[in-house]
Design a protein that fits this description.
By secondary structure, the protein is an all-alpha fold. The chain folds into 3 domains: about 1-75; about 100-165 and about 175-180, no CATH class; about 185-290, no CATH class. The protein is built from 18 helices and no strands. Helix 1 runs parallel beside helix 4. The radius of gyration is 21 Å and the shape is flat. This is RNA polymerase subunit sigma-70.
Length: about 290
């Protein structure tokens, strides 16, 4: 019988995911390992176990393989972010030392004064509640390294700073060649330059959350190049039905990719919409590359 701790975790997880979590073998051991790893990483912060598990459960995706979802959690990073949002002074010091100290390495060539200014803006953006809402750091789900997630927020802030002061730091001069590589859309060029690996990881995770039939349909069409007529013959279904299946699989893949990017990068709705434009524009190429792996 599941322990009270496990039942509490399940009570805070997305309802659609609970059956898969409940049937996952060794769920209690997985949760114990999450807590152990978090405590060992940051013994000085005094982790509140029950509140931490609730925090982790509430940030799980609504669908997917339970084993893969649990295995993707960065327990140490999630615990640090969680304790920071609780205002824990030791956690905030640790966050400064382990994460915000890297801002200068994310922006090589920038003046120390600009790096310090961005670091301060980043603290405010991530740690200060706005309008009664939790601080932005509370949206970090633990499904990507914390430094990677914060880096994405920092780079977004940096480009916003550049746009706010075009005479001092023209984007076209600071990012030479990007706009040319993606036509007339410098925002997409920036996204491709900065978030290529983030997108690849999110896209892989989204593919893993598709069911077997959806992946097979996309593989047959995009990797093996089967036409709709050939796939209709293979599946013994009408051509129009096969076309609908593929269209639905593509749209579900895009929706899941959006979920993964939201969890990994912490972007705003507008920023996500820009990134999804890039995802859509390169979907066929990405499917051929990743489904062939």
């Amino acid at each position: 019988m599941p322990s009270e701790q496990t039942e509490f975790f399940l009570s805070r997880a997305p309802r659609a995911l609970v059956p898969a979590l409940r049937s996952h073998p060794g769920l209690e051991q997985v949760l114990q390992e999450l807590v152990r790893a978090a405590r060992e990483a940051w013994p000085e912060v005094g982790l509140e176990v029950e509140a931490f598990l609730a925090h982790a459960a509430e940030r799980l995706p609504a669908t997917g393989d339970a084993g893969a979802v649990l295995a993707s959690l960065c327990a140490e990073d999630l615990a640090l972010a969680f304790t920071c949002t609780r205002g824990n002074a030791r956690a905030l010091q640790t966050f400064d030392a382990h994460v915000l100290s890297q801002v200068g390495t994310w922006l090589p060539g920038e003046a120390p004064s600009q790096v310090d200014e961005l670091r301060q803006l980043l603290r405010q953006r991530l740690l200060v509640p706005v309008g009664g809402a939790p601080p932005k750091l509370a949206s970090y789900s633990g499904r990507a390294p914390l430094a990677q997630w914060v880096r994405a927020v920092a780079l977004r802030l940096h480009i916003d700073q550049q746009r706010a002061a075009p005479r001092e730091q023209p984007v076209g001069e600071r990012l030479p060649g990007l706009a040319e590589r993606l036509g007339a859309d410098p925002e997409l060029a920036f996204i491709r330059e900065r978030h290529q690996e983030d997108f690849r990881g999110a896209f892989r995770a989204a593919l893993g959350r598709l069911d077997t039939r959806e992946r097979n349909l996309l593989r047959l069409h995009h990797v093996h190049g089967l036409s709709m007529d050939a796939m209709a013959a293979t599946t013994q279904a009408p051509r129009s039905t096969v076309a609908r299946w593929i269209a639905r699989a593509r749209e579900r893949l895009l929706a899941l990719t959006r979920e993964e990017l939201t969890a990994r990068l912490g972007l705003t709705t507008d920023e996500l919409d820009s990134l999804l434009r890039l995802v859509r524009s390169e979907l066929d190429i990405s499917l051929r590359q990743l489904l062939a792996d």
